[in-house]
């Protein structure tokens, strides 16, 4: 389990694993675009957003990863959806 000291943001080991995969895909996208490697995110926040997609939105970790992979192949969306929070916010529009 990963969490902030105030326990407001947290995630399971699977949430963290998913968040780490999302970041690795983001790094691939940056490389494809010829950009510098992105700064490592706050994985507690990313895992928390993944947890919310799983627990509140009813998505699986596999669905989240598959959907982000598809989104990151689109010329427009790969520039605009670069974190789990944005992925969650834009999910229905995507």
**How many E-type strands?**
2
Give me the secondary-structure category: mainly alpha
The side-by-side strand order for the widest beta sheet comes to 1-2
Main β-sheet: number of strands, strand sense, barrel status? 2 strands, antiparallel
Task: Tell me the fraction of residues in β-strands, as a range.
Answer: under 5%
Which stretches are poorly predicted, pLDDT < 50 over at least 5 residues?
none
Q: Structurally, how many domains make up the residues?
A: 1
Q: N-to-C SSE series?
A: EEHHHHH
Given the structure, what is the number of helices?
5
* Helix proportion: 55-70%
Mean pLDDT: 94
Oligomer: single chain
Chart the SSEs and their pairings.
Blueprint: E1 2-3, E2 10-11, H1 13-32, H2 43-55, H3 61-71, H4 77-80, H5 84-90
Antiparallel strand pairs: 1-2
Helix pairs in contact: 1-2, 1-3
What features would you describe in this structure?
By secondary structure, the chain is mostly helical. The protein has one domain. Helices cover 59% and strands 4% of the residues. The protein contains 5 helices and 2 strands. Strands 1-2 form a two-stranded antiparallel sheet. A hairpin with a 6-residue loop joins strand 1 and strand 2. Helix 1 crosses helix 2 and helix 1 packs parallel to helix 3. The longest helix is centred in the first third of the chain and has 20 residues. The N and C termini lie far apart (30 Å).
